[in-house]
């Protein structure tokens, strides 16, 4: 894997370019706008206008589109400098979305201890480079395609008619996931902090489904150093750990809480916590804390002592104050 380099963009044609088929399918007129082309950010030049057949960094020839999001598009490409013409997935970011921090994390993960047996459970970058363009450059990430490290657990959950995983399948997947987190925590000294599960190639999510590889930890855009204590906000709202909600110093354990909350999604088909405030129905920290207390009991006093926001919700002796209304509403709802 290269360093965050300034890869040449179509400046020298590599040998043995792949011949693209131009017949056998419908050709869409250029005036028809599709997907990100309909977004205002595309019209203002934030997205890079990738074309089929285009060659990046003098070796990656684009052969098809895999998807898009608000900050990037993802393309299937052939590595023309690889003897086997292997496919790669190229993620091309919008020019206003700097990925320097995430790229540094990916480089660190790839180099930390590749010989470690749990390294294979963490998705790494094959290449990182820049696409130069008038008006601003675009960061580009090269990884193995998603059929080699297939789909997120959420995507695979949608493919299962029951909408949930079996207990045996979930246990097997979690074993590999915790191995990946152990590598991330102990070897890389990183906290993931986000929704983090990607799968290797499988047919996923009844007891009869074949398994061709363990879960793969991915998407490190929100990862931070775990050996540096911090109390900043982190994690998707419904997965936030108590110490994050209370702004107490947190580190590696928040990832374990995150996994515990996500297990409910894929095993029961719904969130464990929603955090819907009784006043307006929107997410609020007090409603989330009320749900946690209803399930697990009040937080320990030493956690409250460390939380900068603790006095917003609790008295000095640990009794809830602002969240009492949420607790009463939850109790009334269950009593119906």
TrEMBL record:
GO molecular function: ATP binding; protein serine/threonine kinase activity
Reactions catalysed, as given in the entry: L-seryl-[protein] + ATP = O-phospho-L-seryl-[protein] + ADP + H(+); L-threonyl-[protein] + ATP = O-phospho-L-threonyl-[protein] + ADP + H(+)
Enzyme class, spelled out: transferase
Biological process per Gene Ontology, one example term: spliceosomal complex assembly
Swiss-Prot/TrEMBL keywords: ATP-binding, Kinase, Nucleotide-binding, Serine/threonine-protein kinase, Transferase
Domain Protein kinase: 60-336
InterPro entries xrefs: Kinase-like_dom_sf (IPR011009), Prot_kinase_dom (IPR000719), Protein_kinase_ATP_BS (IPR017441), SRPK (IPR051334)
Residues binding ATP, per UniProt: 91
The EC number(s) this enzyme carries: 2.7.11.1
PANTHER family, A to Z: PROTEIN KINASE DOMAIN-CONTAINING PROTEIN-RELATED
Name of the protein this chain belongs to: non-specific serine/threonine protein kinase
Organism: Drechmeria coniospora
